Known about the structure:
homotetramer, DNA-binding
Amino acid sequence: MRFPEAVDADIEDITRALSVWSGVGAAPTPKNVRGVRTRQHLLKAATEAFIRLGYLSCSVEDILQEADVSRGTFYAHFKSKKAIFAAVIEESLDSRLRGTAVSEVDVPLVRDRIEESVRRFLDSYWRGRGLSMVIEQVANTDPSFRDIRLIIRDSFARRIAKGIRRQQARGIADSTVDPAEAGLVIIAMMTNFAHTELGWRERRPSEEMVDLLTRFWVQGIGLDETAPVISR
Amino acid sequence: MRFPEAVDADIEDITRALSVWSGVGAAPTPKNVRGVRTRQHLLKAATEAFIRLGYLSCSVEDILQEADVSRGTFYAHFKSKKAIFAAVIEESLDSRLRGTAVSEVDVPLVRDRIEESVRRFLDSYWRGRGLSMVIEQVANTDPSFRDIRLIIRDSFARRIAKGIRRQQARGIADSTVDPAEAGLVIIAMMTNFAHTELGWRERRPSEEMVDLLTRFWVQGIGLDETAPVISR
Amino acid sequence: MRFPEAVDADIEDITRALSVWSGVGAAPTPKNVRGVRTRQHLLKAATEAFIRLGYLSCSVEDILQEADVSRGTFYAHFKSKKAIFAAVIEESLDSRLRGTAVSEVDVPLVRDRIEESVRRFLDSYWRGRGLSMVIEQVANTDPSFRDIRLIIRDSFARRIAKGIRRQQARGIADSTVDPAEAGLVIIAMMTNFAHTELGWRERRPSEEMVDLLTRFWVQGIGLDETAPVISR
Amino acid sequence: MRFPEAVDADIEDITRALSVWSGVGAAPTPKNVRGVRTRQHLLKAATEAFIRLGYLSCSVEDILQEADVSRGTFYAHFKSKKAIFAAVIEESLDSRLRGTAVSEVDVPLVRDRIEESVRRFLDSYWRGRGLSMVIEQVANTDPSFRDIRLIIRDSFARRIAKGIRRQQARGIADSTVDPAEAGLVIIAMMTNFAHTELGWRERRPSEEMVDLLTRFWVQGIGLDETAPVISR
DNA sequence: AATGAATGAGGTTTCATTCAT
DNA sequence: TATGAATGAAACCTCATTCAT
């Protein structure tokens, strides 16, 4: 991984924020193996139900039916609908955040590295578009969940900003660009393009999309397209 | 206005789509001045209530209290909560769509013209951020409203694409860029930057933002920054 | 007419009962010719609306639309929905009650006279089935309107009972039959057959129906089928 | 029982029709004894409330008060007011339809058998007059419930027609009478006499009524009053 | 740990009638 | 006499959550 510490810190932040949001101290881990299985089962069922119906339209009843479990059992494992949603989000978080970090790819140019980032972002979004759309729904509905959404967003944006800063230091990117702000612009562009085109219109990611987004990113920060990656 | 016919056509589309969505044929116009005033009063109250609470959390009751009007009066003027929301949206549409069309500005360069577009977009978003956020909420909640959101989006995107095509024809923009797709990328970037930074974080539009977004737009399509506007 | 005085008395009773039911003292006759016309217009519209929708499902709004008249006008002429319904009923009463009285028909046998009564009853019901069904609806819904329905019913029943008594006196009908009770049975049979078969199933009156109902009536009271009508 | 299969088939038809009418697939049977008890309790309370107030004037609130149960409980057991009404009707159906089938009575004459039918009909109506009146109300109000009412009616009418056909075959009833039509006339007479005199006027069934109705039935179809029942 | 019945606050909508002009 | 806006009580239904077993 590229920035494991940073990502871990962000994940910790989000976990904490989710706790606060859902009003649940800590996950009350089940005592025995049966409990663990039921919990997992519920999480899976809830994930599917949320994806299928959205957070708001998905009633607890829907989750119960999906899981074929009684109401009492549900509330024994999760304090509320909010709580199970928080758990679902948290579970899917690692892969979402780590999956896009460009790691062991061996490409010669910085430009290619960015391209690979974009490609992974789109692919990752495509695979997880179900939950992403639910997250967007809740962020646009519940003001206090919005903060969590912003933490996630900033986690991505900071990574991009860091890259820009490094590139500016090497003299291969326009130094008049504000890295933090440019990170926000890039994340806005990618996030919303994916949300709308992949999520809403269900277009599959294509190399044309990757090219275009890479182009805006690279040109936007004035990156030297011929600059090589510095070997570690 | 620049493309008045096109905008008119889009507005018509949206009005029609809103009619279908809200399940209401046509607004039953009040028949005397008192009725008109009450209707306006209700629209204003609803706008404020929707902005304050969001569409979902805003009950008809909330609108009634805001307007200090009885339940019966409300339903005499609007068939449903959906219907008044549609009316609110429609009312705010003109300014939103027309307000961003670059018209009689006198600037020497194409780049400046784009910059002016960006500036107006941010300013317009800032002023109407309340409703914009509600629209986003509903689009992320009600699948059938999403279509309306997409019509609005595409209206903007098409305008941008049209510009790119003209610039390519003049040889002042990179001809390898797909104008339609680039339009979507640009609108994604601008929309979501505004939504998040102006809407969520309540940052006021600044010249730095304008510069940065203009930069991504201009560089992204490979525009010749020195190309002059063709006088009409 | 056969029993003009009796019928008049019944109609008076019903009018009075309708007044009480609807809570309206007397019809506040309009002052000028314009008022009279509007009133008639409203009555006609209400009749059609009630027939089309039934009393309960017919809102005041429906009547207004049918008449193309404003709410205020409506309430200027009729105190309430009940009141206009009462007026509608009253207006249609004469024909309903008098239309079935066997008058100047020249038939040789008593049996034929009964047959003619049955025929007229069915024909009259068929023509007025719309309102009849509405009346039945209200009678089955509003306990206090039920009394009015019973007055109408008894008016018919008494006429039949009177005939039976006369026939018994002449020795051409079975004297063990209780005339009043038999009248109720006959009116039950005719009323409900008509309500169900003509009203609900929309079967048109046929000579077979007339024959069969006549048969039950005549045989039920043990009438001598060959007995001649006594000339007046 | 006399025609058990036929009655069963009719009951099935009605149950199905009620399902469609109420928009409820199948009653979600409670899963333990407590639930069953509450369900029964609700049914009983609803029956009383419907009888006391009529279907239309009886709000769900009224049922809740009668049963002393919360809104949520009600809707956990029954999907809607329509649904519980359908259940109430269905429950009272068996006894109503089966209770009038002349079974193991030992009487010498066909005439006596009919008399017994009439007696049972009146007695059964008297006991269930509350619900019968509600059914009539709904049938006269809701066009789609009318169909159900007609199925019930035809079930009775067919049974009577069957008897007439058998009697005609034996040569003990007038063969010129159309059995199906006569069945409708007889059921109209009995139903409406009972509805009005027992239901509305609350007169108790008497032997005089039985005699008179039997008389109209027997004479109407031209039955030989001395014909003996054929032993099975 | 699991079950399923019970709760009740909260939401949208209808409609007969009154009132100001 | 006519108009049409305004009223407010009352109806049905949903659903997250609690509780008894």
